Amino acid sequence: TNCVIYNNTAAQRAGAMYCWGGNDGNASPVVVNTIFINNSAIDGGGIVSDRLNASAGSSGNSNPSFRNCIFWGNTASGTGPQFFILGGATFTATYTDINLTGQTAPHIISGAGTGNINTDPLFTNIALGAGPDGNWMTTDDGLQLSSMSSPCYNTGDNTGISGGDILSRNRIAGGIVDMGAYELNAAP
Fold it and tell me: In the chain, what's the furthest Cα-to-Cα distance?
């Protein structure tokens, strides 16, 4: 909850997060109000969801679920800029801003994708994630929504959210939670 995963690179797969449930394992995190921005890999620039066993076949669970998140600017030189699925795993996203350009079957969202959008989130400065001061979790962080005109403003799902954002500001400032780790116009 309320995480920033930004500007990471993997030499092969999963620029940001690898969920492996093979060998009868379980990698099914519930991720809320988190942003995956500018990560890169050959396959799965943002996320890999994988049920393949170490030797052969598939088993276990790999069913990550994302709500009120933002996936933007992630890249893959191979397949799946935002996410990559192996061995019958799934990727569920609701009330999430996710750029689906370049996502091809079987690397698609599982389920209805309720409340999802595919629109530039309009960050204050995506190139300076930590902001001009270079320190994360300060008021100048560049991955905050730039204004109420952001498509991520007041478009999340209030179910089961935390009381505060990444900067310890009130999580709901305008009646509905924002997508991402930062709440726009929220009081501390």
Answer: 52
pLDDT in tens, 88-120: 999 999 999 999 999 999 999 999 999 999 999
CA–CA separation, 170 and 13 (whole Å): 36
| DSSP assignment string, 39-82 | -EESB-SSEEEE-B-SSSSB-SB---EEES-EEES-EESSS-SS
Amino acid at residue number 142:
G
Torsion of the alpha carbons at 95, 101, 106 and 110, rounded to the nearest 10 = 10
Is the distance from CB of 123 to CB of 143 less than 8 angstroms?
A: yes
Q: pLDDT for 164-173, tens place per residue?
A: 999 999 999 8
pLDDT band at 186 (very low <50, low <70, confident <90, very high): confident
User: What is the distance, to the nearest Å, from the Cα of residue 137 to the centroid of all Cα atoms in its chain?
Assistant: 18
Q: Are 175 and 158 in contact (CB under 8 A)?
A: no
C-beta separation of 37 from 5 below 8 A? yes
66: which strand partners? 31, 93
Spatial neighbors of 41 by CB under 8 A, at least 6 apart, are: 9, 10, 11, 12, 13, 14, 15, 76, 77
The candidate with the shortest Cα–Cα distance to 141, out of 155, 127, 121, is 127
How far is C-alpha 180 from the geometric centre of its chain's CA atoms? 8
